[in-house]
Amino acid sequence: MLNITTTHVADKVLNKFHVLEDEAISSWTADLRQVFASHLESGTYQDIFKEVIVRLDSEFTDNVAMKSRIRELIPGLLGPQVTSLDFSCIRTFLDKVITKTVYTNMDKCCPKLERLYMGKSFFFCPELVSDMNSKLSCFPRLMSLKIEYIAIPEMLENISKICPKLMELSLKGSSKIGDETTENLLACSNLLILDIQGTGISGSGCLKIIEACPRLEWIEHCPFNCDSDLQIFKSRKEMFDMIKKVYIESKNNNEGEELSEIPQMKSITQFKIKNFWLFNPKSEELIVSLLCPRLEKIRLDFVFQDMSYSLDASPLSSFKYLDTLDLNFYDSHNADMFTHILNVCGFQLTNLIFNVCSDYNTVVDCHNIIARTCPNLTSLSFIGDYENPSHIDREIDSLLIAHSPEYQPHTKLRNLTLGGYCTNGRFSWMLASARNIQNIKLDGNLEKLGDAGWTDVMADNSLQQLETVWFNTSTAMTMTTVNRLVEQCPRLRRLGRLVHLVGHEGGARRGDYTDLVDRAKMGNWDMDFVWVTPAKKIT
What confidence tens digit (pLDDT) does each residue in 386-397 have? Predict the structure, then answer.
């Protein structure tokens, strides 16, 4: 009901806005803001504010005549009940005039702000955000702050006192943030989520933050900016030698006991963080479960030319809560290691991200291994592989184990990302039994993916749960597939990018897209057909 109300009010606002004379917009917007502030709850006001902005986004980009009118409307809708400002989610907020006006007035207009997201749109105007620290002091309710790519040390001075309720902080990509800044973060006692990727904060600085912020659960870091070979916490040798020593002594003295029950474990400080990232880890380094017993996600990166040892991944079996594995093979494929890792932890995974730099012929058996070892996956990303012209696609596809009543891969899968070389056979094999699939994202080389692949899928799987389909590069698909998906998938909400369909030499026909949009309007479909850029954000 709330969604219906929000949509209805947004319709009324936009219908009136489009017929107003230019000189009347300012006073009308002020009156509208006053009415909303007096009669709407904070959440409803926020929803309408967001709905209006999102629906004006494509118009702002495509209709030059509307730019000046929208530049007056959006800042004018800022009110005391706006609780969230995101300068990164839509193109309208990339406009310098709107960005400057909203930023300048947000402290006076939005004192109840709880979430503030700022990023690259401010990168080339550092003078505009030079007073960020004083702006933040006007938002005592702020719980989530993202100042990505633009943060400098001055912005974080006394941040714990200025924003005492801060639970999420992202400084991603802000290279001027280093270890000297950590002193201002140590007192953020309510911090749950921290992103320091691309900053200059080292491993030792990261450790200080983790030790000082007892509630911290999720920390996105990069081992390359954490002293290169220093992963996190103390030095690699000091920390992991200590873990290995205690672990070996505990195993020798307490063979039959669970690790969590061993008294010696009390000598190790345990942290609440739920994610971890290791580069070319050694076997003993995987025993981070002793430090992070609540770990839910682990990222393992490998450059095999730099590895002079074999990896025993068996310590991964001690991660009781692990459900996400982000596995990256950057310079080749190691079939034995891949199989070994998934044999150890695959059964408990619900999300697998696999990035491999190798040809399709080399990695095709990985699909069989994933299906066998990871029966509970709800999300799978398989990216990075490429075509091998010296092999025939059908011969490679034939290595995939045929479906049967006893063998049904990916029955729980809801989200699929394929970012490598996509043949019709590979595509149909992955989705034939995935009757719960909701979102399909395709990237990489899709020039061999055509209507036949979708026909084969839908012969076995009617895709009744499908909500979004996204293909990011040129395909061999035509409007035949699009029409079939529209007609047979009742939950479909977004389909694109249609510019990458085959319609004639050089790409799809724009007329096919406009005809589809017209049909959607006539039929009142709640569906976003994307030519190049989405018109609305799908959550």
Answer: 999 999 999 999
